[in-house]
Amino acid sequence: MKWTIFGKRPNTPAPSWTPVILAFIFASQTFIDSSAGYPAYMSYLAFGSGLWFFYIGLKAKALIAFLFVPIAAAWLLPLMGIDPFTQMNAVTFAAHSLLALLFGVASYTYAAREKVKK
User: Fold this and answer.
1) pTM higher than 0.85, yes or no?
2) Strand, helix or coil at 113?
3) Residue 37: pLDDT above 90?
């Protein structure tokens, strides 16, 4: 199989619920005030799950999976003492919404599961 934008999908795809839930979590974090400091567990969740879906995308030969690396890397900044997510600005909005969109796309494309027949 050669590389495509969305990678290999099942014949009868159904969305994978893990990236759907992650998309919901990061989309909701877009509008939560983090002025007291961004939670470290969210940084670990964003970077770890971003790497995991990058790996899944590599196995499925999905080009879109390469976007997970630079976007998820933004969540390393709070762990290094640079916190771009403490203010509601374009960086916060863009990072959270782009990561949520990537999880949503992954859910319905290369991370989709085979639909169970009833």
Assistant:
1) yes
2) strand
3) no
